[in-house]
Amino acid sequence: MTISLTALGWDTDRAAHLRRIRTDNRPGRVARVDRGVCTVLTEDGPVRASTGGALLAAAVGDATRLPGVGDWVLLCAWPDGRTTVQAVLPRRTALIRRTAGKDAGGQLLAANLDVVAVVEPVHPAPDAARIERLLSLVHESGARPLMVLTKTDLAAAPAAVARQLAALAPGVPVLPVSAERGTGPALARRSRSGPHPRAARSLRCRQVEPGQRARLGGGDAHPGDPSGGRQGPAHHHLAGVGAAAGRGCRGGHARGSGRRPA
Fold first, then answer.
1. Are residues 65 and 164 both part of a single domain?
2. pLDDT attached to residue 51
């Protein structure tokens, strides 16, 4: 099978960068990371690749330099059949959860995002402190923030709640949605759901078909879960966005869209 790199976000600037560095390694976008082994989407289809020695050495003391979901990377195919990620191309944005202790660099959640949506339920009551924390994470990433308020059909005055939460982040679009009433789903789809900052477990890597936009997918663990995300994610993944994307939004999730050229 073949995959359009343009549908994944490859553009003229990245192509020009590849020409400047004059490499024979082929480009691809990381669709999934499973503790050191990446699934990379290339023009010839998905490839499983380990991390090259130079990248491993460079990441000592800063794990964010390792390839992450959404990264554009360069692959080398070896005579013994192995494929390794040799380099990570410059990131335009990076969603990083800062951690304490030895891993001072933090945890890379996703790279090269256009938009990250903070999804919060208005019932029984939205958590303003959580929203502010997640919006801060998004602002630091360089991506555009979006606030999606779910379960508005259960709120007595959803418009008032939306105005109150909008005051927490002037200039950030606020999209009230209700799956029960079918209000707002078209707008919610624009967020192109993405990675949860705490955990992503037992998820599938869905193939990005030609004509589909790329998105970054994550799990459903709550930002306030007792584990605190200390075990780290089993994986995040890149997936195609179909017509049903945006349904079933859940509270407290930071979600991101894969970058796609305008």
1. no
2. 93
Looking at the whole model, is its pTM more than 0.85?
no
Dump pLDDT digits (tens) for 63-115. 899 999 999 999 999 999 999 999 999 999 999 987 766 556 788 999 999 99
Which positions ≥6 away from 244 have C-beta within 8 Å? none
Write the CATH number for 10: 2.40.50.140
Which domain does 46 fall in, by range? 5-90
- Residue 27, classed as helix, strand or coil, is strand
Read off the CATH number of the domain in which 243 is found: 3.40.50
DSSP for 59-94, please give it. TTT-GGGS--TT-EEEEEE-TTS-EEEEEEPPPS-E
Residues 115 and 233 grouped into a single domain:
yes
CA distance 198 to 169: 22
- How, if at all, do strands 45-51 and 72-77 pair? unpaired
